[in-house]
Specification:
Elements: H1 14-22, H2 24-36, E1 40-41, E2 47-48, E3 51-52, H3 55-67, E4 71-76, E5 79-84, H4 86-92, H5 96-108
Antiparallel strand pairs: 1-5, 2-3, 4-5
Helix pairs in contact: 1-3, 2-3
C-alpha cells in the first residue's frame, strides 16, 4: 500500500489551506473532524446534513485536506482515521483557520459549514 503524504508543518502553505477550505463540503468535513476533538473515521463524516458524499468524492476531499496540512490520516485495518492538525496550523498561521471557519459560520448563520 502506498504511504500517505503529510507535509511537514514548515511546508504547509496558506494558499493550500485556502484552496482546501474553499470547497464547502471540505470545510464541513474539516469542521466535523475539528469539533469532534478525537480521531474520526472517514465514514463518520460521510453525511453532511441530509447529503451523503460518495466514497470516491470523500477520498478526494480527504486527500486535499491531508495534502494541505489540515488533517493527519492513519490506516487502521480497512479503516482510515483522521485527526485535525489545527494546533500546528494555528502555531504557524495564527488566526487563519478561525477566520475562515468563522466566515463560513457567519455566512450560514450556524456553527459549521454545510455542503
Amino acid at each position: 500500500m502506498r504511504p500517505l503524504f503529510h507535509p511537514a508543518i514548515e511546508d504547509v502553505r496558506p494558499e493550500a489551506i485556502l484552496h482546501a477550505l474553499a470547497d464547502p463540503a471540505r470545510a464541513a468535513i474539516f469542521a466535523s473532524i475539528t469539533q469532534a476533538g478525537c480521531v474520526q473515521a472517514c465514514s463518520a463524516v460521510a453525511s453532511l446534513g441530509e447529503r451523503v458524499i460518495p466514497k470516491s468524492s470523500l477520498s478526494s476531499h480527504f486527500k486535499v485536506l491531508r495534502e494541505a496540512g489540515l488533517i493527519r490520516s492513519e490506516r487502521h485495518g480497512v479503516e482510515m482515521r483522521n485527526h485535525s492538525r489545527c494546533a500546528e496550523v494555528e502555531a504557524r498561521f495564527p488566526g487563519l483557520l478561525s477566520a475562515i471557519m468563522n466566515a463560513y459560520a457567519g455566512a450560514r448563520g450556524c456553527e459549521a459549514p454545510a455542503g
